[in-house]
Each structure stands twice: as structure tokens, then as C-alpha cells.
Amino acid sequence: MPNILSVAQPQPTSSLSQSSHWRWQRVASILPLLILGMTMGAGRVEAQSASPAPAELLQTLAQIDAAASQGKLPEVMAFYSPAFTNSDGMTYATLQDALKQLWQQYPNLTYTTRVNTWRSEGNAIIAETTTTIATAPAPTPRPAARSAQPTESAIRPFSLQATITARQRFENQTIVQQEILAEQSQLTSGEKPPTVTVYLPDQVKIGQSYDFDAVVAEPLGDRLLLGAALEEPIQASGYLNPTPVELELLSSGGLFKVGRAPRTAENRWVSAIIVRDDGITTVSQRLRVVPLTAPAAPQPPAAP
Q: Helices 27-36 and 92-105, interaxial angle, to 10°?
């Protein structure tokens, strides 16, 4: 764990903007990689649409799952078209690099996918899915030799959880296009990471202000609580690059910020990191920025 007490004194502000002091691998730059892996890791594929999903679609998802769960990158990429495009600007090459890094950092991921809707479009299949992703329980480590030094993962294991909704276009059982519709993610570390609840709208209109609250459930008491909020444009380069942030001393039980949407319609990552002496919690959510004339945000599919 970095020396969290060495950060600069916090500057009073209600803005989401932060400057650099402590570099952390932003959860929002990691978990969207899981989004791109959502159709690669459908650990349990369930059809929830009005009519059963085509067998070839479910079979493709199952085959991708088998390869992804074992980290077989060439086999996984065979299910993607060389002309693959993604709504965040990812290509076949950048997707491959992103997945390689993701699986190195998080080798034990489990996926549960629900097929919400699907439709045929000529020879293509358009499928909307919701995937829940979580870090599998770590196996009990074997006793290490006395001379061995503990690894960072042994000292500070991380746990990932994410829920992602996306729309994919399949042609000849390969994915050619993908649009991320919604995502929420959480990364925790430590003996007892803070329990954090995030309040953020799913979408706002261009130029509109919005509230972003990350509330810690446990009473603050006399303990120190540090945190930072971050709002970033979603772009391909953000998937692989860590983001510098500055932690501030929190006088209340969480982060309470006001942001303002950009003047252009684009998606944003809005994230919060909460640091306590017994753990770290990072939460991230996608914020859709829509034109002034855009309709209301669609409601997520009901739980089965």
C-alpha cells in the first residue's frame, strides 16, 4: 500500500477534477476490459428474451468462454473479426493487448451472462447481453519457504466485481461490432475494505450538472478516511494507462461532488477511490452524455 499520509493537503473544492500525487490503476481503465471480454467469458449463458436465443449464438458464447477462462488469447481472438470495432474506439489489435494485460493482472475471473434480447439482421445476429463478472475465490496458498519474499498479490489481493450491458453484432459467428450501453464496477483490497454505495445518474444531457456521491456505510468515528473522485472521457488509450489522482482527507463518510457534463455527447467514466487503514475500495460507473433532445434513459432489464 502506498504511503497514503504523504499526499498533499486537500484543497476545498466541489469539482471532480483532481491533480496528480498517487498513481493508481484506475478501476475504470481495467474493468471496461472486462466489458470487452464479456462475450468471451459467458460462464453461464441464459436466454431471457421473448424467444429462445439461436443455438449458434449460445454455442459461440460457450466456446469463447472455454477459451477465455483458460486465458487462451489466440483462441479467443479467433472469435473477433480483424475489422472489429467498439464504441470506445477499440480495435482488434488494441483489444488483444488489453486482454493480455487484463488476464495477467486478474487471472481468476468468472462470468455470468444473460442474453436480454436478440434479433436477426440479414445474416447477422444482434444480441444485447448483461454480464456479471467477479474474481473467483483464491485457493489456499501453500506455505512458502522462509527465504521467499511475499509477492504483491499475496500482500494485497484485489477483488473485482462488475456488471456490464452491451450490444454485439455477430457475423459468421464472429463479433464485428460492440456498443457498451452501461457498466458499473468495483475493485476492493485489504482486510476490510470500505462498503461504498454510489449515487450517479445513468445519463445526463450535454452541459448539465450532476451529483456524484460515494457514501461509506461504516461510521467514520475517529478514523482517517481519504478519497478522490475522477471524471474522464472514455477513449481507447484509457484502457491501458494508469491515471494520476490526488487523495484528499475526507471530513465526512464519503465523497460528495458536483460534476458538469461536457458540451459534446459522449460517454464518461466517473470513479471514486476510498482509502481507509483497513482497506481500499474503488468504484466506477459509466455516465452517458446525450444531446438535449435525447429521450429518457432506458430502464435496465428486470431481474429474472
A: 120
In the chain, how long is the greatest CA-to-CA distance? 65
Scored b (16 or more CB within 10 A) or e, 133-145 reads bbbeeeeeeeeee
pTM value?
Answer: 0.73
Residue 303 belongs to some domain of the structure: no
In tens digits, the chain (304 residues) has pLDDT values of 222 222 222 333 334 433 333 434 443 333 333 334 333 333 444 445 557 889 888 888 888 877 877 778 899 899 999 999 998 888 999 989 888 887 788 878 777 777 889 999 999 999 998 888 888 776 555 555 544 444 443 445 788 888 889 999 999 989 999 999 999 999 999 999 999 999 999 999 999 999 999 999 999 888 889 999 988 887 655 555 566 778 899 988 999 999 999 999 888 989 999 999 999 999 999 999 999 886 655 555 554 4
- Give the C-alpha distances (Å, rounded to integers) separating 133 from 114, 151, 229: 12, 25, 23
Residue 174 in any domain: the answer is yes
Give CA–CA dist 61/67, Å, rounded. 10
CATH code, domain carrying 201: 3.10.450.50
In the chain, how many domains are there?
A: 1
Name the residue range of residue 246's domain: 4-137+159-290
Is the Cβ–Cβ distance between 70 and 111 less than 8 Å? no
The answer to whether position 148 is within a domain reads no
Which residue intervals of 44-170 are DSSP H helices? 55-69, 73-77, 92-105, 152-155
Q: Is residue 130 part of a domain?
A: yes
